[in-house]
Amino acid sequence: MISVKENLHHTAFRAMNTDIEVAYFNDSERFDLEDQVRDWFEFVEERFSRFRPQSELSYLNRSAGRICMVSETMLEVLRLADSYRARTDGMFNPLILKALRAAGYDATFDQVRQRPGYRSTSEPDSISMDGAWELDPAMKSVRLPLQAEIDLGGIVKGWAVSRLARWMREAWAVPCGMVNAGGDLAVWGASPRNKEQSWLIGIQNPWNPGEDAGVLHLKEGAAATSSTLGRQWLTQNSVMHHLIDPRTMSPSRSDVVQCTVAGSDAVECEIWAKTICIAGLEHGLSLFRAEAAGCEALLFLRDGRTHFIGANASPAVRWQLPTATLRH
Description:
about 325 residues, 19 strands
């Protein structure tokens, strides 16, 4: 939940299989950016949607094993993904599309959740993630491992948010705004009438989705939330979700069920929120402390406990948390 400041233009729509919300200060001389915003998210889907047969990502997956020329946009995201795969000790790895399908996530989540009854799944042991893609930035080419398929849903939302926010600030001279794609968000600027006002970001209670478990006061920066409880579906094996553990090629069974990360960049926040959910408390926090300087995180554990990690010293970020939260 986001408290939208007064005098902001606001638009909300559905794209990228999630809810998009954009708000920005709109003085009398500034044109309406809604068409440009919608066009941007349509462009992102044309490049990266695994549910569109003609997207660039679908073409790349069909070309696995062969050298494939890619767009500057695809190259940028793949290079980011490579970097975060190394920084997260492989906990973030896009080579999981076959595992997602095997778990039952073979259509958009809106379609999956509307299916009646149980859905069959493949055995996780039949899925392999051997090898890594080969990137050639100079040639603007990539070669996926033979028979491999990638899903970039774990990075593209944050990237799309970050890019759009930057364009709105720099190219369109928007002094104050917010871009939110399904909980991956970026905010900047201050209300002309109240320079001290912050964006209020409600952190959903994973055990009671109708309530907030805390509030993040964010003046400048980004935040992202990832959860194993949101995108769930039922199979004959068990309840499944969309966060695949690359060590098992099955939905994660870690002790972390939800994580919110705040920092300066939406991509970094998205990656670390997912990584901590997949890796679990001990390994996830070890990686987070070593590789995510400047970020803070709020974790919800399967046993009902909550943990806060961070200095909580940034003037642009303030957490309003439950008193039971353990701080590290």
